[in-house]
Amino acid sequence: MFTKTGTTIVGVKYKYGVVLAADTRSTNGDIVVNKHCNKIHYISDNIYTCGAGTAADIDRISIYTSKKMNIFEKEYNRIPRVAFAANTASLELFRYMGYKSAALLMGGIDDLGVHLITVNPHGSTFPAEYNAQGSGSLAAIGILEAGYKENMEESEAVKLAVEAIKAGILNDLYSGTEVNMKIIKQDNKKGYKIEDTKFPVSVREDKDIKKFKYPLTSIKITKSEVINMIKESE
């Protein structure tokens, strides 16, 4: 069975940039294979993407798109636009009609401003102010819809993204461990600036654990059987 990134990934635009966040658990069926899987991939100096789906497919489409952006940058001596990167990934995914399992949230900054573009496994794309993908996205998108507002400050966007990933982790067994984050922000000198950060996520707060403690007598035992697993030698 292929290793999958189970996954909750989130993208949030704010006033001066975009926040990309993801959990760090990858799975093989019901087995946790890697607790510290990097799901935020480099495309170019000004563009990064989060990926949900099959780990190998996400790695290959990210490397493919990154190489195309590198060729463009060397040939034209300018940073690539986010829409161009999303279109490049989209055309490659469309060729395989969804058989490459890679859902992407691509974010970055170019000469046209701040962008967040969703690229679906079948190749369709659409821009968004915020979005979530992956097996934990149903829980995450509810947090985003409730908390998002236009022209958010960076601290607000970071907090919202962390809460969205945490919701995915708590409600999806295939998401877990911690929140990995890239903050792509506008900068006066270079035009863009990249920051990395991580946030540990506890499964449940102490106050929540108390809710799930039940007395031993709460379940009535109707039948019991003891099997001796130690065979006595003669």
Key terms for this structure?
single chain; 234 residues; alpha+beta; Glutamine Phosphoribosylpyrophosphate, subunit 1, domain 1; five-stranded antiparallel β-sheet; 5 helices; elongated; threonine protease
Concise structural overview:
With 234 residues, the chain is of the alpha+beta class. It has 5 helices and 12 strands. The radius of gyration is 21 Å and the shape is elongated.
Structure, explained:
The chain is α+β, with helices and mostly antiparallel strands and 234 residues long. It has one domain: 4-Layer Sandwich (Glutamine Phosphoribosylpyrophosphate, subunit 1, domain 1). The chain has five helices and twelve strands. It has helices at residues 55-76, 82-95, 137-147, 154-171, 206-209, and strands at residues 9-14, 17-22, 26-28, 31-34, 40-44, 47-53, 102-110, 113-119, 125-127, 130-133, 178-185, 193-200. The strands form three sheets. Strands 10-1-2-11-12 form a five-stranded antiparallel sheet, covered by helices on one side. It is elongated. It starts with 8 loop residues before the first strand and ends in a 25-residue tail after the last helix. The mean pLDDT is 91. Keywords: Cytoplasm, Hydrolase, Nucleus, Protease, Proteasome, Threonine protease. It is found in: Cytoplasm; Nucleus. Its main location: cytoplasm.
